[in-house]
Specification:
By secondary structure, this protein is mainly alpha-helical. It has helices spanning about 5-25, 30-45, 50-55, 60-80, 85-90, 95-110, 115-120, 125-145, 155-175, 185, 195-235, 240. Mean pLDDT is about 90; it is low at about 245-260.
C-alpha cells in the first residue's frame, strides 16, 4: 500500500463529517451511503497502487486521481450534507451557479497548465496537496447548486450542460496534441506501459469520456425531469381545464361512455 496525506488525513476527516451529519439527522440513509461512497473513492485513489503511479510514472493515473476529486467524489459528498446546513450555506456566493462554475473551471484549467502541473509534481508534500484540495473544494462548489440549489430542473440541466461543454475541450486537447506537454512525465522512468505521448492520449480520452458520462448523464436526467414537469404543467394548465382537455393519461379509453350532464 502507498498511503498519502489525502488517504490518511483528508478521507478520515470527510468520514468524520459524514458521521456527524448522520448523528444530527436530516439526512436519509441513501444519501449517507452516497457520502460514504465518496469518501471511499477518495481513499482508494490515494491509498492504492494508483498513488505511486500518479506521482512517479503515468499521467493517466494522476488525471484519474484529479477527476475523482473534482468530479466523482464531490456530488456524493454533497448529497450527505444535512438540509439545515445546506440552507445556511446557500447564502454564500461560492455555492451559486454563476460563481461556482467559473471557479471550478479556473481551478481545473489552471492546474493543468504544464508549468504549474509539473511544479506540483516536483513538490509532492506541499503544492501537490494544495492542488488536490483545490480540486475537491471547487468540485463541492460546482455540485452544490445541483444537489441543494432551489432551481428548476431546466436551470440545473442548462448548468450541467454548460459545465460539460466548457470542460470537455481540455481532455480532447490532451488527446489530440501531437507531442507530450508535461516534462515530468516525459522524463519519468518507465519499465512498462505506454510511452509519454500514448500516456497523454490515454489520459485525454479517459478524461473526455468520463466527463461525458458524468456531466452529460446528469444533464440528461434533469432535462428529462424538466420535460416531464413541463408536460404535467401543460396538462393541468388553466387553458387545458377551460377547454375541457384532459391529460393524455386521464383521457377516456375508446368505447368508454362519457358521463351525461
Amino acid at each position: 500500500m502507498h498511503p498519502s496525506a489525502e488517504a490518511i488525513g483528508l478521507a478520515p476527516a470527510l468520514a468524520v463529517g459524514i458521521a456527524v451529519a448522520a448523528r444530527g439527522g436530516g439526512v436519509s440513509r441513501p444519501r449517507l451511503v452516497a457520502g460514504a461512497l465518496g469518501v471511499g473513492l477518495v481513499f482508494a485513489a490515494f491509498f492504492t497502487q494508483l498513488e505511486p503511479l500518479a506521482n512517479h510514472t503515468f499521467l493517466w493515473a494522476h488525471l484519474l486521481q484529479n477527476v475523482v476529486l473534482a468530479e466523482w467524489a464531490p456530488p456524493l459528498l454533497v448529497l450527505a450534507v444535512p438540509t439545515r446546513l445546506a440552507e445556511r450555506a446557500a447564502r454564500f456566493p461560492l455555492f451559486r451557479p454563476l460563481v461556482a462554475l467559473p471557479l471550478w473551471l479556473v481551478a481545473y484549467y489552471t492546474w493543468h497548465l504544464p508549468w504549474i502541473y509539473d511544479a506540483a509534481l516536483h513538490n509532492p508534500h506541499s503544492l501537490l496537496h494544495l492542488e488536490h484540495f483545490t480540486y475537491l473544494a471547487a468540485g463541492v462548489c460546482l455540485w452544490w447548486p445541483v444537489v441543494h440549489g432551489r432551481y428548476s430542473a431546466g436551470a440545473k440541466a442548462a448548468y450541467l450542460f454548460g459545465a460539460f461543454v466548457l470542460a470537455s475541450p481540455l481532455g480532447l486537447l490532451l488527446a489530440l496534441i501531437p507531442r507530450a506537454i508535461y516534462p515530468f512525465y516525459v522524463h519519468a522512468p518507465r519499465t512498462w506501459g505506454p510511452g509519454p505521448l500514448a500516456d497523454q492520449q490515454i489520459a485525454g480520452v479517459t478524461m473526455a469520456a468520463e466527463e461525458a458520462l458524468v456531466f452529460f448523464g446528469a444533464f440528461a436526467g434533469f432535462l428529462l425531469r424538466f420535460l416531464a414537469d413541463e408536460q404535467a404543467a401543460g396538462a393541468f394548465s388553466p387553458t387545458a381545464r377551460a377547454t375541457g382537455a384532459r391529460p393524455a393519461g386521464l383521457r377516456a379509453a375508446p368505447g368508454t361512455a362519457r358521463p351525461r350532464h
